[in-house]
Design brief:
Elements (H helix, E strand, L loop, with lengths): L12 H19 L12 E6 L5 H12 L3 E6 L11 H10 L4 E6 L4 H6 L5 E7 L5 H15 L6 E5 L6 H12 L3 E5 L15 E3 L2 H4 L5 E4 L15 H8 L3 H4 L7 E3 L12 H4 L6 H20 L5
Parallel strand pairs: 1-2, 1-3, 3-4, 5-6, 5-8, 6-7, 8-9
Helix pairs in contact: 1-5, 1-11, 2-11, 5-6, 5-11
Bound molecules: phosphoric acid mono(formamide)ester.
InterPro entries: Asp/Orn_carbamoyltranf_P-bd, Asp/Orn_carbamoylTrfase, Asp/Orn_carbamoylTrfase_sf, Asp_carbamoyltransf, Asp_carbamoyltransf_Asp/Orn-bd
Family: Belongs to the aspartate/ornithine carbamoyltransferase superfamily. ATCase family.
Protein name: Aspartate carbamoyltransferase
């Protein structure tokens, strides 16, 4: 595996399977009453969050602590970033405090790549702009594998605001590497211009794709990134692309529903679908800790330098 995890596309099939298999071994730790391993004792993980997060920030913190690493949490709000301090100076300040790994979420696509040129430790991309979110894709693949078995030949449908979704891009790359067949379903306005070069199929007809899906992953409509009208109204979006009870009934009986969170309940997904037994949404959060433990363990090696 490379020193950094910036793009799901950087992972070979062997790398991805190593992370998933390591996470499977580490999963038992999360089920113990004392959820701690001494593996990263003496190592320091910095969580550098320039954008809001609930799941990713907390799960990286929990993952590092379960491996006994020291954790420094940095949030841009309330820091010297508000006084104009640059990403580079912020990163060098944190490195001076001895960071062995920097986990970064940033609003700008490419920020983790830039950071990797400035620090000596490993950089983990926790979501950069509309670009990538590789650990989300890994936890999604882990969640699918736990429910369905091997992903080779599985039909995964990803629905919604692909244009603004770093989750969609990372999932298309990773699932393709793992041998799954991915179909994106979205209104034409919410697909990137370059989608024709992505290793997946594209459809505008959710009702036609649902009966052929082993997994249906709904994406959040990212209103905060929209500076124009991408669809006539929320009601119209929901009518054509929302997963409601009637659409859920069109899925095969053993197919599962996923969502990376946070959800717009009632818009892209009905509450009763999100809360059904075939939804993995809560499992995905728990699996996020396990996958991030595996990533930190494999990047930091568990050995003291
Ligand atoms: N799925 C995800 O990245 O959620 P957060 O924004 O809460 O971290």
């Amino acid at each position: 595996m490379k020193r950094h995890l910036i793009s799901a596309g950087d992972l070979t099939k062997d790398d991805a399977l190593l992370i998933l298999d390591t996470a499977e071994e580490l999963a038992s730790v999360s089920e113990r009453s004392i959820k701690k391993l001494p593996t990263l004792r003496g190592r320091t993980v910095v969580n550098l969050f320039f954008e809001d997060s609930t799941r990713t920030r907390i799960s990286f913190e929990a993952a590092a602590k379960r491996l006994s690493a020291d954790v420094i949490n940095f949030s841009a709000k309330g820091s010297s970033v508000s006084k104009g301090e640059s990403l580079k100076d912020t990163a060098l300040t944190l490195e001076a405090m001895g960071a062995d790994a920097v986990v970064i979420r940033h609003g700008s696509s490419g920020a983790p790549h830039r950071l990797a040129n400035w620090v000596h430790g490993s950089v983990v991309n926790a979501g950069d702009g509309t670009h990538e979110h590789p650990t989300q894709a890994l936890l999604d693949a882990f969640s699918m594998r736990r429910r369905l078995g091997a992903l080779e030949g599985r039909r995964i449908t990803i629905v919604g605001d692909v244009l603004h979704s770093r989750v969609a891009r990372s999932n298309v790359l990773l699932l393709g590497t793992l041998g799954a067949e991915v179909t994106l379903v979205a209104p034409p306005t919410l697909l990137p211009v370059s989608v024709g070069t992505w290793p997946c199929e594209v459809s505008y007809d959710l009702d036609a794709v649902l009966p052929k899906s082993d997994v249906v992953m709904m994406l959040r409509v990212q209103k905060e990134r929209m500076n124009a009208a991408y669809f006539p109204s929320e009601r119209e979006y929901s009518r054509r692309y929302g997963l409601d009870r009637d659409r859920f009934a069109k899925m095969p009986d053993d197919a599962i529903v996923m969502h990376p969170g946070p959800m717009n309940r009632g818009m892209e997904i009905a509450a009763e679908v999100a809360d059904s037994a075939r939804s993995t949404i809560v499992e995905q959060v728990a699996n996020g800790v396990t996958i991030r433990m595996a990533v930190l363990y494999l990047l930091l090696g568990g050995e003291t330098a």
